[in-house]
Design a protein that fits this description.
This protein is globular. It has 459 residues and is α/β, with parallel strands linked by helices. It is built from 15 helices and 17 strands. It has a 7-stranded mixed β-sheet with strand order 5-11-10-9-8-6-7, sandwiched between helices. Strands 1-2-3-15 form a 4-stranded mixed β-sheet. The protein has a 4-stranded antiparallel β-sheet with strand order 13-14-17-16. It folds into 3 domains: 1-28; 29-99 and 356-456, Aspartate Aminotransferase, domain 1 (Alpha-Beta Complex), CATH 3.90.1150.10; 109-350, Aspartate Aminotransferase, domain 2 (3-Layer(aba) Sandwich), CATH 3.40.640. It has helices at residues 3-9, 11-28, 42-56, 88-91, 100-110, 124-137, 152-166, 185-190, 219-233, 257-269, 290-294, 335-350, 359-376, 402-414, 439-456, and strands at residues 66-71, 74-77, 82-85, 116-117, 145-149, 172-176, 206-209, 238-243, 273-277, 302-305, 312-316, 333-334, 383-389, 392-397, 417-418, 420-422, 428-432. It binds pyridoxal-5'-phosphate. Residues 90, 151-153, 156, 180-183, 244, 248-249, 277, 279-280, 306 line the site of pyridoxal-5'-phosphate.
């Protein structure tokens, strides 16, 4: 036995970890539900917010600074208030706050000899994490290898390099209209939102295809025609087709399998890499990957994940295995993040979250039904079109008006509920629902949405 193995199996250490997790749980149990700020924290909290504004050069979007404590979907802020959190670090904390599995893995990871693991010197956590992801991916895809990275944007950069190297000298990228791909220079280029790239130059490397429009019966045919035109106009110069299986930042729009298949067939015929950007959808749609939920896995050459995984990863087939030297970087991820990411995936696999009748499906159905009741009932005319996949759900408030919806988000925040926006027109309310919510939590969420809409509807 190595000293490292001894450290992981040492009974005294394991008991200490167990005791630490228990003690943390005991504290977090005091987070019971939404509550207002404590009067005695008000001044110091305002100072913290001012300091944030100074550091960042502008105020925070939400006056949100976590205290470090929470319980399930509830989080305590540094002003002593408790909020119901349905955005979770924009989709990172799939088990919500202070989940025992995550805390335990975090402590276990932190006992490693190093904090950050890299691509030259790695510990076993790197392998455990990669094997768990690839094990999920085996089901219905040809993805066999993976390269870890610190973020979704970096995972995407690596996928693009792999596609371009394999299909060299092809340079261009087909991406969806309203796509979001991250914040690096190239991912900003792939992203179809002028608000996210003011003043940046255009590189003219991205060709757009419209995403599925459920209100247009010819949507699939139109997108296919546009894809074919791009291919005809750029012979041999298209390296990959990058798409989110469900449009994320672009409006939480869903498309059926029948929409994707003709597009992917066309890519295959023309030697264009099929790259599913699952940074937001990973672990969230009812199966580990959305390509499994929707059913187009056999077409995928490259797939990127991050967020719920706690770090990024680019998965690729045998054919797209990059030549040595193409992808690397100092950081892969931290030992606690790799340990926690692995533990989250294992618990989701063994805890009945995936599949027909799984916990994700139940949460989805109940939340959408409750939103539908609001749309047809007290919020009629001011709330419509709840839709999504698994734990990614959106609804359009106040006719999709962006300014009003931004105000609505702040009203809901004041009332103790955190959500976020997505899309352009309509601008929608989006929820990244943690996988551990109860019926009661969903009821609380809907009560705040209802109260806030009724307050805003005449403004
Ligand atoms: C679909 C998609 N791709 C890429 C990214 C970028 O990931 P990161 O913010 O980790 O760089 C995001 C982030 O929101 C995303 O939703």
């Amino acid at each position: 036995m190595t000293l490292g193995q001894a450290l992981k199996s040492d009974e005294k250490i394991l008991n200490t970890i167990h005791s630490l997790v228990e003690q943390a749980q005991e504290k977090s149990r005091q987070v019971e539900g939404i509550r207002p700020p404590s009067a005695d924290q008000k001044t110091s909290y305002e100072e913290i917010l001012d300091r944030f504004a100074e550091v960042r050069g502008r105020p925070l979007f939400y006056p949100y600074v976590g205290s470090g404590a929470g319980r399930g979907p509830y989080v305590e802020l540094a002003d002593g208030s408790v909020k119901l959190d349905f955005i979770n670090g924009i989709g990172v904390h799939i088990f919500g706050h202070s989940h025992p599995t995550v805390i335990k893995a975090n402590i276990q990871g932190s006992l490693q000899d190093i904090l950050m693991q890299g691509h030259l010197q790695m510990n076993e956590e790197y392998l455990n994490f990669s094997r768990q992801v690839l094990d999920f991916a085996k089901n219905g895809s040809r993805l066999r290898h993976g390269w870890i990275s610190p973020s979704g944007s970096m995972a995407n950069e690596n996928a693009l390099k792999m596609a371009r190297q394999k299909n060299s000298p092809a340079r261009k990228i087909i991406a969806m209209k309203d796509a979001f791909a991250g914040r690096t220079t190239m991912m900003a280029e792939l992203t179809d939102n002028p608000g996210y790239k003011q003043g940046l130059p255009e590189y003219h490397e991205v060709l757009r295809v419209p995403f599925y429009d459920k209100n247009d019966p010819d949507s699939t045919e139109k997108s296919l025609q546009i894809l074919k035109e791009h291919i005809a106009n750029n012979p041999g110069d298209i390296s990959c087709f990058c798409f989110e299986p469900m449009l994320g930042e672009g409006g939480y729009k869903v498309a059926p399998r029948e929409f994707f298949i003709p597009l992917l067939e066309e890519c295959k015929k023309n030697n264009i890499a099929v790259w599913a950007d699952e940074v937001q959808t990973f672990l969230r749609t009812g199966q580990p990957f959305a390509f499994q939920t929707i059913g187009f896995g056999e077409y995928v050459d490259l797939c990127t994940i991050a967020k719920t995984a706690q770090c990024g990863m680019t998965l690729y087939t045998e054919e797209y295995n990059p030549k040595p030297g193409l992808v690397a970087g100092t950081f892969a991820s931290s030992s606690p993040a790799l340990t926690a990411g692995t533990a989250i995936m294992q618990e989701m696999e063994n805890g009945g979250f995936f599949g027909k009748g799984g916990r994700i499906e139940k949460i989805h159905n109940e939340f959408v039904q409750r939103l539908e009741e609001l749309c047809k009932g007290s919020c009629k005319g001011f709330l419509e079109d709840p839709e999504g996949l698994g734990l990614m759900i959106a609804v359009t408030p106040l006719s999709g008006d962006k300014d009003k919806t931004m105000k609505l988000l702040k009203v809901m925040f004041e009332k103790g509920f955190i959500a976020f926006g997505c899309g352009k027109s309509p601008f929608r309310l989006r929820f990244l629902v943690p996988a551990i919510v109860t019926s009661e939590d969903l009821q609380v969420a809907c009560a705040v949405i209802e109260e806030s809409i009724l307050e805003m509807k005449d403004q």
